[in-house]
Amino acid sequence: MELNNRDAFSRLNPLSFAVSVSDPWTIADVIDFEYLLTSEASSNAQGLSDHERALFQSHLPTKSGEEPSRQEIFKAWIETRREGEGSALPGEHFTAGWQSLITLSALAGLFLGGSLVAALLHYKGDEPVNVSWFLVCTIGVQLLILLAVALIWAIRRVTHLFENFGPLQWVLAGLVWAFSAGLQRLPGEKRERLRAALSVIRRKREIYGSLATWPLLVVTQIFAVSYNLGMILILLAHVSTTDLAFGWQSTLQTSPDEAFRIIRGIAAPWAWLFPNAHPSLAQVVASRFQYSAGLKPLSNAAMASWWPFLCYAIFFYGLLIRGAILVFASVKMRSDLKGLTLDHQGCNALYRKLTGPIIRAQSGTAILEIPETVEPVVAHPVRAGRCIALVAAELDLGREPLAEYLKESYRWELEAFFSAQIDHARGNVEALALVAEKGADLAAVVIVVQSKRSPIMAIALFLQKVIAAAGTKPELLLLLVGRKDGATFLPVGDDEFTHWRNFNEIRGLHLELEKWNRL
Amino acid sequence: MEPIVTDATPTFAIVGAVNHGKSSVVSTLAEDDQIKISAMPGETVECQRFWLLDLFVFYDTPGFQNALEALNELAPAAQASEPLSVFRQFVERHKGEVEFEAEYQLFQPIIAGAGVVYVVDGSEPLLEIHKAEMEILRMTGQPRLAIINRTGTDDHVQDWKRRLGLHFNAVREFNAHHATFANRLELLETLAGIEQSWKPKLMRAVTMVREDWEKRLSECAEILVNMLSDCLTHEERTLLQSEAQRQSEERALTDRFQKAICAREANAHKAIIKLFRHELIKSETSAGDLFEEGLFSEQTWSLFGCSQQQLVALASVGGAAGGAMIDVMFGGHSLGAFALGGMAIGAAGAFFAGKTRPEIELEMPRNMRWLSPRLKVAGTTLRVPPYAALNFPWILVDRCIAIFHYSIHRTHARRDKVRINSAEEKAKMAKSGVSTDHWPAGVRRDCQKRFTALRNGKLAPKAREELRELLRAQLVAVSNS
Questions:
Q1: Range in A461-470, B101-110, B316-325 with the lowest mean pLDDT
Q2: Does residue B298 lie in a domain region?
Q3: How far apart are CA B478 and CA B409, in angstroms?
């Protein structure tokens, strides 16, 4: 039943849920994906359960000879999780809220546009409706707003004047500043959680860029389209049900010729299409209103000849432009969604989990085994290749077990192994030089740290150096290892993982963060 | 209230690596359980000040975050004639910089002349970054004490000791989560030894802390006497409206009596906990009881109070005393027969009752007691008289001693909720020899006499004072255990 509802949603709305995984991503999918990714990051599960994997496989598109794309794999995972969740995910709430907002905007637009025109057409019989004022109020204001936005956009493109114009960022920065004193007084756990959450919001804006802008633009343009539609409908209703008289007036010594030229200029976009595109010169002359003379000298036919022109003006300068922006925003939103690379922090770990070999723990033992019969979904889950490992000096971890683990779990060949002083940014010169030299050819740089170590500023500075040295090509993985207990390492504690995750966000490192729980 | 700090006031900055227990040490030393402590690294982000009059000031500081880089910049301090000026320049240079935010904070009190108390976790391995921290602190040239506070099971204490010895005036082990009052005093005395000019004030502080402790023990004894007085004399009454309601009224009255006694005992427990400055202690149970078992539970009565032998001895002494009074009435012609009889009856009663809890009995008012039930009319009063069970005061005292024992051994660095298991706590008390069944027999006898007088409402002020002193002496013994 729920699926049927979603199906109906998806036909109506590009932002809604889609049942078929071959459907493109929606904003609701993105929201659910981020929500699920966050909970997945702290999960200790090594992969999907049998039931989940079967569901996941059923959601994957069957294309012969082609491997499913990242988007398809993640979409299938989202669908699997949606079916597994007892309650609705945030994406569904977003869709419901967004639908309501669209309906409200459309209704508000119709009502406000209609009200404005009804007020402007209020005609007592002693003075005709002022055409100039009607045009200024109906389309003049709209065009001015559009012009201002276009101007800011052009200045932003050409100069650096509005480069840092980001109202949301300002609000966030303001909030952080306003609450900074309170933040210091909060218990550490809450303080770090809040700081991490604010960093995450900033980071998500960086990742998804304008994706957050399009839904907002769609809503405002739906309002604007309805607003113009409301104006046209009420204008037509008034024309057909009341005896309206339109006229023009001016204190300036404007001649009817000049007024006619302006009107013809305004009507240029539709003049070739409609015979009654604008009043003729004679009609313009006959509809000039002067208080001293009153209504008597004006021609009734001339005064009535204005309404089609006003209708066309609202249609072409209001409705059509807004409609075009609405279509543009919808198309851009779809193309942005289609172009999502989904390779940011946390995605690779999930991708490996979904596409790697199935790992099962036998009951009664902690040993994990890889059944030989089960093939990975994708032959090469994430970029295979060589990697460099920087292992914290205090960690008693040899090259061999690490190489084996990286090979088995990530398909990375360990090219170089360094014992690094991770709390000394200026140290580790040799290791950082090699990372910088080979960064472009590497699949990954792995930093192995003991999870119980306190994530301090010195470590953040060291990691920043590694990030800078590695460049954008290799994947950067921060691998957490638990406390040593004899010859083995204990699993990474949830609290320790949370501390490192918050640290990763707050310090803006955005490294892939994973637990090594198989030692 | 702000401290009256002068240049002569001994001031200490508690510094160390992140999450090595600085705040726990401060919390324990200052007996302040409102200091923010958590397992999360970097809980403390600002310097916090704690003081005792003008006798000393402690600064709890954020942990070192970037010691190796800081050491690099502070290296000239090793050769400088005025090392703190190099630290001052460092602080001015890095004001507002996120890279040295913590160092900026923690150097402030040191620049102002504070001595250094460097806290390390003996269960964590000694790393290069810790050596850098020690080197930085050595270069300050300020009086320095190192505290090894072992929080985990791993043991790296010897490694730490070897290295700390090279950089600090004194090195002490101090477990902030298990430190006793004596440990705290010892640490304050050690602090007095690292700088001669601070010694007089710090020794005065030690004396003041000791006197304060003695005062608290006296107050605690007073709380015990008050509670005993309340509980041993408490009675409940209700008006019986009809004979048909008798059973339900009796049950309700007994419940009310038990609740009233429990509330009085709980108030005494809270007062003891507050006396030892545990402001944030909360019970783990929803009902708010600190003990897992209630005062009137069978387990409580089997665990706490005097043993059966001791009860027999106490009862026989009581019985003999009663009998002796009758002998006196007979002018000695009975030749002590009543005393002997009383002793035998008392001993036999205590022996057969054992350590089980006697039922709470209800009674009619004295003038109605002998009437047949048929003649007992509505409107008569039902009464629960003061609870006469021999072991009752001993159980009350024992449970208070358990709370006292727990309060003085629970350091202010702990933030967990309280849930005292009677058997476990009793075992700890027995091990330390502080529970009432381990008291000297003479003390028990003296106490019993006063309990009896208290119950009968005949405890003279002097005897009350004596009881307080008897209990105080036992609290001192617990405190020293």
A1: B316-325
A2: yes
A3: 10
Residue A114 domain flag = no
The answer to whether the CB atoms of B40 and A426 lie below 8 A apart is: no
User: Is A187 within 8 Å of B67 when comparing Cβ atoms?
Assistant: no
Is some CB atom of chain B closer than 8 A to the CB atom of A457? yes
3-state SS of A61-125 is: CCCCCCCCCHHHHHHHHHHHHHHHCCCCCHHHHHHHHHHHHHHHHHHHHHHHHHHHHHHHCCCCC
What phi, psi does A74 have (nearest 5°)?
Answer: -65, -35
Number of independent structural domains in chain B = 2
Q: Residue A180, CB half-sphere, CA atoms under 13 Å: how many? A: 7
* B46 to A393: CB separation less than 8 angstroms, yes or no: no
Are B143 and B238 contained in the same domain? Answer: no
Q: Please identify which residue in the block is written with the tokens 């001649």.
A: A255
Does residue B87 have a pLDDT over 90?
Answer: yes
What's this model's pTM, rounded to 2 decimal places? Answer: 0.66
pLDDT digits (tens, 9 = 90+) for A133-165: 999 999 999 999 999 988 988 887 787 666 666
- pLDDT computed for residue A173 by the predictor: 66
Rounded to whole angstroms, what are the CA distances from B211 to B201, B204, B207, B215, B276?
15, 10, 6, 6, 14
Q: Indicate the SS3 state at residue B64.
A: strand
Long-range contacts of B178-186 (CB under 8 A, 24+ apart): B178/B409, B178/B411, B179/B28, B179/B411, B180/B408, B180/B409, B181/B213, B181/B408, B181/B479, B182/B480, B184/B28, B184/B29, B184/B209, B185/B209, B185/B210
Q: What is the token pair recorded at A409?
A: 């779990």
* Yes or no, beta carbons of A188 and B125 under 8 Å apart: no
Residue B120 burial by Cβ neighbours in a 10 Å radius (0-12, 13-18, 19+): buried
Residue with the two structure tokens 């405890």: B459
Please state, in angstroms and rounded to a whole number, the distance separating the CA atoms of residues A204 and A198. 10
Asked if B65 and A456 come within 8 Å (Cβ–Cβ), the reply is yes
Claim to verify: residue B98 and residue B223 sit in the same structural domain: no
Contacts of B38 in chain A (CB under 8 A): 187-189
ipTM passes above 0.85: no
- Interface residue A461 vs chain B (CB under 8 A): yes
Q: What is the CATH number of the domain that holds B96?
A: 3.40.50.300
Residue A367 has a pLDDT of 36
Q: What is the mean pLDDT of residues B274-284?
A: 77
Query: Minimal CA–CA distance to B191: which of B158, B169, B208?
Result: B169
- CA distance to A61, A62, A68, A292, A378, per residue, from A65 (Å): 12, 9, 10, 85, 12
Q: What angle do CA B423, B428, B432 make, to 5 degrees?
A: 145
Whole-number Å distance between alpha carbons of B270 and B253: 26
State the amino acid at position A440 in one-letter form.
A
pLDDT tens digit sequence for B219-272? 999 999 999 998 988 988 888 777 777 788 888 889 999 999 999 998 899 899
Bridge partners (DSSP) of residue B16 are: B119
Yes or no: say if B420 and B402 are a contact pair by the CB < 8 Å rule.
yes
pLDDT in tens, A465-500: 999 998 888 889 999 998 887 778 888 888 888 889
Q: Which domain holds residue B171?
A: 11-194
State the alpha helices, DSSP H only, in B234-307: 246-275, 298-303
Range of the domain at A26: 2-96
Give the CB-side neighbour count of residue A424, counting CA atoms within 13 A.
21
CB-CB contact of B240 with B250 (8 Å):
no
pLDDT at B463 over 70: yes
DSSP type of residue B267: H
Same domain, A13 and A153: no
DSSP output for A416-455: EEEEE-TT-TT--HHHHHHHHHHGGG-SEEEEEEETTS--
